[in-house]
Amino acid sequence: MTTPPDVLDAADPLAQFRDRFVITDDVVAYLDGNSLGRLPKATAERLATFVQDEWGGRLIRGWSEGWVELPVTVGDELGAAVLGAAAGQTVIADSTSVNIYKLLHAAASVRPDRTELVIDSTSFPTDRYIVESVAASRGLDVRWIEPDLVENVTTDVLASVLSDRTAAVLLGHVDYRSATLLDLPGLTAQVHDAGAVIIWDLCHSAGAVPIDLDDNNVDFAVGCTYKYLNAGPGAPAFLYVAERHLAAATQPIAGWWSAADLFAMADRYDASPTITRMLSGTPPIGGIIAVQEGVRLVAEAGIDAIRTKSIALTDYLVERLDDAGFDIATPRDSSGRGSHVTVRHPDARWITDALIERGVIPDYREPDFIRLGLSPLTTSFAEVDAAVAVLIAVTL
């Protein structure tokens, strides 16, 4: 028998975090935190202070009073709280798309004798488009993985495309459609055994799943901050370069912020020897401040506790959906899924619109997926229960 949602919420050690976000009365259930997280109250207050006191009061003096260091400072905070990354390897910069572009070039530069990039055909569109673009610009070939929707990229599937021609492999840690959580340690080791390097897209796992990049010997990683890190729409992304690759990792957008001496205005470009070599132009300070506040909430809650609640939420949702007879396109084993659950239905687009009209906010993905995103710091079991009740009513 399913435990009542009020009992689950009363026993939830992270329940108090929900009160630290802006929650509006017009939403019955917000199940789209895997696309855009809720606004933390601390972020609203911090940004108001930044605008009034730092930008408004200190003006350009803010750069010498801490803004210059923020991309690395916040990158280190994110690395420690979310990525399992030691200091000096993570930086806040640009968008996920731009950072994937940079890291693909960097990865190819550390394997210059190899001629192929590998990606799966069901990766998020940006990842696929940019792999094709970088391959074309560097004269490389693309090898496509053709995975099952739910099983996704396994070691057997990956083995079929790896060879001594493979320079780099780009994989999404959590599939954006099915929520399948890939075996990051095992697949990373497999890529290394083939003599290649790996780039992990962490957009749908960062802030919801423990990652441990250093312990798993990951080469490169990238991700957004506006989902489970709650940094706001269009917030700057992050990228990670393992320390062992910093000297050889060459990125293609050599702006002044990636130079060894930022303010030398030198005639000749010399890349920074640190992670700042992955920067390009002037950082968006307001956006980085929002990232910092989101990361600090995750650090306070603890990524392991967040993962425990994520599993509890998705288990509860899967059970409710099963009881109602819905077609679930997400792994049943909680160790193999991220923090959303996907329902397949031939009328998925219409159902999504109908849910939104009734105050339940999921999102739709082609061709027939309804994604129900469960953000552990803000989603309650009562929300999940209410959402399923509306879903049942809409589909009757």
UniProtKB/TrEMBL annotation:
Pyridoxal 5'-phosphate binds at T96, S97, F124, P125, T126, D127, D201, H204, Y226, W256, T282. It catalyses: 3-hydroxy-L-kynurenine + H2O = 3-hydroxyanthranilate + L-alanine + H(+); L-kynurenine + H2O = anthranilate + L-alanine + H(+). The keyword tRNA processing does not apply. Gene3D superfamilies: Aspartate Aminotransferase, domain 1, Type I PLP-dependent aspartate aminotransferase-like (Major domain). Its cofactor is pyridoxal 5'-phosphate. GO terms for molecular function: kynureninase activity. The modification N6-(pyridoxal phosphate)lysine is found at K227. Its EC number is 3.7.1.3. Pathway: Cofactor biosynthesis; NAD(+) biosynthesis; quinolinate from L-kynurenine: step 2/3; Amino-acid degradation; L-kynurenine degradation; L-alanine and anthranilate from L-kynurenine: step 1/1. InterPro entries: Kynureninase, PyrdxlP-dep_Trfase, PyrdxlP-dep_Trfase_major, PyrdxlP-dep_Trfase_small. It comes from the Bacteria. Pfam families: KYNU_C (PF22580). Keywords: Hydrolase, Pyridine nucleotide biosynthesis, Pyridoxal phosphate. Belongs to the kynureninase family. Homodimer. Catalyzes the cleavage of L-kynurenine (L-Kyn) and L-3-hydroxykynurenine (L-3OHKyn) into anthranilic acid (AA) and 3-hydroxyanthranilic acid (3-OHAA), respectively. HAMAP family: Kynureninase. This is Kynureninase. It comes from Aeromicrobium panaciterrae.
